[in-house]
Structure formats: structure tokens, C-alpha cells
């Protein structure tokens, strides 16, 4: 029993860290609520808030009604984000040709969603 409880704690810590999602500034997220998921509000992460132990535990978010803070556990990132520069760089000393850098094409539905979300937030900013 004495070895079982510490092993159980280690097991829980190992599995719980894998379930956390990474949220960055400027990410578009759904804010968890007691309503059905289809009724959750969208928000943009303005900044991340660190706790005393250095872990990111909350975020300042901007919704249609203003800014507020929410715990990271209540924020669910959408699967759309800004395109990232390719990580692969050839070992050559000359700068690579723009044609030689291969990037994965984005899905049309992701492009449409990104444009729709951008339009919504631009309209909210002008109101």
C-alpha cells in the first residue's frame, strides 16, 4: 500500500499533463460554459497569466462583450491558427529559394473559417 499510493500519484501526474492543450496569445478559443457546446462563446486570447509557481493557469480573453480572465482549463482552442513558417531549413550557406521551401497547404474550410472569424472580430472592433 505504501508503494501503491506514490505510484498512483505519479501515474496521474503523467497522464494529466498529456491532456493539457497549448494555448498561445492571439489564439481563438471557445469559452467553456454550462450550456451546450454549440452555444459557447468565442474569444481571442489577449495575454497569458502566470501563477506564483510560474505555470500558466489563466488567460485574459477578449469576447464580443469585453475583456475578462478565464482559467486555461475553461478555454478550448479552435483548430485554426496563423500559418507557421516552415521549420525545415537546408544546411546550405546560401539563402533558400522560395520555391524550395515546402509548406503544407491549408484546407479550404480552415481558410474560410479563418476569414469568417477575422471578419467577425473586425466588425466587433468597429462597433
UniProtKB/TrEMBL annotation:
Recorded coiled-coil stretches: none
Segments of this protein annotated with the region Disordered: 1-20, 84-110
InterPro entries xref list: DUF5641
Pfam families associated with the record: DUF5641
Residues in DUF5641 domain copies: 3-78
Protein name: DUF5641 domain-containing protein
Lineage, opening ranks: Eukaryota, Metazoa, Ecdysozoa, Arthropoda, Crustacea
Amino acid at each position: 500500500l505504501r508503494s501503491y499510493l506514490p505510484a498512483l500519484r505519479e501515474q496521474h501526474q503523467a497522464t494529466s499533463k498529456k491532456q493539457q492543450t497549448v494555448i498561445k496569445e492571439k489564439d481563438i478559443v471557445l469559452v467553456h460554459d454550462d450550456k451546450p457546446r454549440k452555444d459557447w462563446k468565442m474569444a481571442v486570447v489577449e495575454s497569458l497569466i502566470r501563477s506564483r509557481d510560474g505555470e500558466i493557469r489563466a488567460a485574459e480573453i477578449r469576447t464580443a462583450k469585453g475583456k475578462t480572465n478565464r482559467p486555461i482549463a475553461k478555454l478550448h482552442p479552435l483548430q485554426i491558427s496563423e500559418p507557421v513558417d516552415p521549420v525545415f531549413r537546408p544546411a546550405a550557406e546560401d539563402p533558400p529559394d522560395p520555391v524550395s521551401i515546402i509548406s503544407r497547404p491549408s484546407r479550404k474550410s480552415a481558410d474560410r473559417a479563418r476569414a469568417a472569424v477575422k471578419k467577425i472580430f473586425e466588425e466587433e472592433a468597429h462597433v
